[in-house]
Design a protein that fits this description.
This protein has about 230 residues and is of the alpha/beta class. It has helices at about 5-15, 35-45, 60-70, 105-115, 150-155, 190-200; strands at about 25-30, 55, 85, 90, 100, 120-125, 140, 160-165, 180-185, 205-210, 210, 215-220, 225-230. α2 links the parallel β1 and β2. The longest helix has 14 residues, at about 35-45. The chain is globular, with a radius of gyration of 17 Å.
Length: about 230
């Protein structure tokens, strides 16, 4: 069953895919918003609207979908500098700062985003927030060994940390073989940059889902159409 949110995601994806031009090496993100974008890109390749596009997937799920759709792909090691990276987001602030990682791929997503000359967020308007952390938790990828020793640290930042688990109750494991701790902030994050700095210095923390001052453009679909928001 197609929902209104699905239609908005598709509208945003169909606008964002137009940013991918012939000969481009593009980073492709992970998550539900990326599914219609991958479908649209595959169709444009089949129709010859664009040619010689190579994708750098940010997850095994995206890589598998590219194989099914026939989208050529390569690794970030083969193309350490990308013309463009396109990805969804769980929250987007007015400055185009974002929270990402509900799909558990934030480490690879951030590597790809930082390798791109231009990072573009694709989202529906429900992801727009005034303050980061008001709706979505900040996912934090951590080493499996001794992960629970990080809980007091997360709490000292004002977060309510919870180990992410699968449907069967087992710990969720990323493509990199690590755990994810979802850090929820009851009133949002007053200073995302300070939280990001603290997380970046902590042993055992591999990456967080705070994407600050990285995106230059957001393609956002709403009931009144698709908007382009720029930083």
């Amino acid at each position: 069953m197609t929902t209104d949110t699905d239609l908005l995601k598709r509208a945003a994806a169909e606008r964002a895919v137009q940013l991918i031009t012939s000969g481009m090496v593009v980073g492709l993100g992970t998550g539900s918003t990326m599914q219609p974008l991958l479908d649209a890109l595959a169709q444009r390749l089949r129709e010859g609207a664009v040619r010689n596009v190579v994708a750098v997937p940010t997850s095994e799920a995206t890589a598998q979908r590219c194989r099914v759709l026939g989208i050529p792909q390569a690794s970030l090691d083969e193309y350490p500098e990308l013309a463009l990276a396109v990805d969804g987001a769980d929250e987007v602030s007015p400055r185009l700062d974002a929270i990402k990682g509900m799909g558990g791929a934030m480490l690879r997503e951030k590597l790809v985003a930082l390798a791109a000359k231009r990072f573009v967020i694709v989202a529906d308007e429900s992801k727009l927030v005034r303050r980061l952390g008001t709706r979505a938790p900040v996912p934090v990828e951590v080493v499996r060994f001794g992960w629970s020793t990080l809980v007091p640290f997360f709490e000292s930042l004002g977060a309510e940390p919870e180990l992410r688990r699968g449907l069967g109750g087992e710990p969720f494991v990323t493509d990199n073989g690590n755990y994810v701790v979802d850090c929820r902030f009851a009133r949002g994050i007053a200073d995302p940059a300070a939280v990001a700095r603290a997380l970046g210095k902590r042993t055992g923390v591999l990456e967080d889902g705070l994407f600050l001052r990285i995106a230059k453009l957001a393609v956002v679909a709403g009931r009144r159409g698709v908007r382009l928001l720029r930083r």
